Amino acid sequence: MIRPSFYLLLSALAASSLAQDTSGCGKAQTFAGLTRRFTVTSSNVQRNFSVHLPRNYDANNQYPTILGFHGAGGVGLYFEADTRFSSTRWSDGRILVYPDGIDGVWATGIGGNSTTPLDEDLQFVSDLLDNLRSNFCIDSTRIYATGISNGGGIINRIACSPTVGANFAAFAPVAGAYTGFIRFGNATCQPYKTPIPIISFHGGNDTIVPYTGRTGAVATPDIMDWLNEWAERNRCGNATEETINGTVHHYTWDCDGIEKAMEHWKEDDMGHCWPSRSPNFSQLASGLLPTEIEGNDLIVEFFERWDVEDRGTGEQPSATETGGTLTSTESSSPSGTSEAPSQSTTGDGGSAAGRVAGSMGMVVFGMTIAMFGGWIIALV
Ligand SMILES: *[C@@H]1O[C@H](CO)[C@@H](O)[C@H](O)[C@H]1NC(C)=O
Ligand SMILES: *[C@@H]1O[C@H](CO)[C@@H](O)[C@H](O)[C@H]1NC(C)=O
Ligand SMILES: *[C@@H]1O[C@H](CO)[C@@H](O)[C@H](O)[C@H]1NC(C)=O
Ligand SMILES: *[C@@H]1O[C@H](CO)[C@@H](O)[C@H](O)[C@H]1NC(C)=O
Ligand SMILES: *[C@@H]1O[C@H](CO)[C@@H](O)[C@H](O)[C@H]1NC(C)=O
Ligand SMILES: *[C@@H]1O[C@H](CO)[C@@H](O)[C@H](O)[C@H]1NC(C)=O
Ligand SMILES: CC(=O)N[C@H]1CO[C@H](CO)[C@@H](O)[C@@H]1O
Q1: Does the Cβ of 47 fall within 6 Å of ligand 1?
Q2: Which among 116, 112, 83 is positioned nearest to 378, based on CA atoms?
Q3: N or C: less crowded end of the chain, CB within 10 Å?
Q4: Ligand nearest to the CA of 103
Q5: How far, in whole angstroms, is CA 92 from its chain's centroid?
Q6: Is 116 close to ligand 1, i.e. is its CB under 6 Å away?
Q7: Measured between alpha carbons, how far is 150 from 173 in angstroms, rounded to an integer?
Q8: Is the minimum distance from the CB of 186 to ligand 3 under 6 angstroms?
Q9: CB 260 within 8 A of CB 254
Q10: CA gap 128, 41 in Å, rounded
């Protein structure tokens, strides 16, 4: 097999050239525990982003870094308020970065409202990372991306890029609008390593980016098709499904000998929103209630398992348990056209989901309403 060594070589090259830029280490910062706005010029455009530093930021400590991509019609600050990733529960020991799309939209490679070419947004992500590395003490082996809706669409494109994607250890799209990845679509996908670790979330009651896909000018794929394509690229076995309380479905895949390199959470009654056990803005905006799972906890726990340089560490690694342990029961997919993950065990599985110690929630929520109350969340 030539592929594994090719990917290992690519990833080794990427890691060795990128991991060494620690020029931002040692530079004192004055906004530990706070969020500050910055700009960087990319493709001759002044692009905006905000950075949240952990409390007690130590300029000589290399931090894991999470980039959070907002949905269409938003800005980074909105994503920050909605997900609350900057609260200490999740930002302790991590740098959070919230970039802005141009005119509220990420280029996901097709038309619609985004006139920015995909290459320019990918270049922006690359320029942003260079800027971050030269100003903050970033651990380049532990950079991650999450995002909602159109923000999920752009991180899917990043994951598919052999160059920009090689900066990221793992991905976490929520309610992703994977435009260009409809069945038999023409989007290209050349990930830098196998497997690309992905944890994804999608509501079964999402009317904006429906689970079974959307047709029209900005078509999105059936989520099961999208998952199956990634499972193929990642050389995964069949999925294992665990159903919690009858309505929450947790799928996991072992991929290329790595345990649980892909995870997917489908919550039947969840709409187009961020999964959180406390009420949040995107939930209220879609007239929905808190969900049963806490997305931030699941995302952060997943990210902690991966770095850029190696192929990852499976959960509870065990030499005898890699590969070949998946069950395989046929079940029908939502669309009836794709191969669905199998149904197997049930269990509580709730241990991975945590609780929100939501103290700043209402403050942030009030600010969010004040800042964005007039907006229609046109989540593409
Ligand atoms: C960046 O922010 C400035 C000031 O708010 C704004 O004028 C500009 O349009 C923003 N740039 C982009 C590309 O959104
Ligand atoms: C473009 O955005 C407008 C509102 O900003 C929305 O009404 C329209 O549906 C969007 N078009 C596409 C193709 O997404
Ligand atoms: C891919 O499909 C989109 C949407 O149908 C189209 O606009 C685009 O031109 C196609 N690209 C290529 C390279 O065929
Ligand atoms: C689905 O969402 C709509 C609002 O968009 C809500 O009225 C309905 O109750 C939801 N259905 C379920 C099963 O949660
Ligand atoms: C995966 O599922 C398919 C179809 O259900 C089955 O034919 C195949 O044997 C399964 N593979 C494994 C490794 O269980
Ligand atoms: C399942 O339902 C029970 C009872 O409503 C609840 O206490 C528990 O938190 C739920 N589990 C999950 C994972 O949502
Ligand atoms: C702004 C806001 O209200 N955010 C809510 C969304 O999600 C978090 C948890 O991630 C809730 O605790 C917040 O209240």
Answers
A1: yes
A2: 112
A3: N
A4: 1
A5: 19
A6: no
A7: 9
A8: yes
A9: yes
A10: 9
**Gyration radius of the chain's alpha carbons:** 19
Above 70 in pLDDT, residue 140? yes
Q: Where are the alpha helices (DSSP H) in the chain?
A: 3-18, 76-83, 88-91, 118-135, 150-159, 223-233, 281-285, 295-303, 361-372
Closest CA to 140 of 299, 14, 315: 14
Closest ligand to C-alpha of residue 231 is 5
Answering whether pTM is above 0.85, one says no
Pocket lined around ligand 7, Cβ cut-off 6 Å: 81-84, 274, 276, 278-281, 296, 356, 358, 361, 364-365, 368
Q: List the single range of 56-65, 213-222, 223-232 with lowest mean pLDDT.
A: 213-222
Q: Tokens standing for 1?
A: 């097999």
Identity of residue 93: G
- Rounded to the nearest whole angstrom, what is the distance from the C-alpha of residue 58 to the centroid of ligand 3? 47
210 in contact with ligand 4, CB cutoff 6 A: no
Residue 354 · residue 294 · CB < 8 Å: yes
Ligand number nearest CA of 110 is 3
Q: What is the number of the ligand 5 atom nearest to the C-alpha of 238?
A: 1
For helices 361-372 and 76-83, what crossing angle results, to 10°? 150
The angle, 0 to 180 degrees and rounded to 10, between the axes of the packed helices 118-135 and 150-159 is: 80
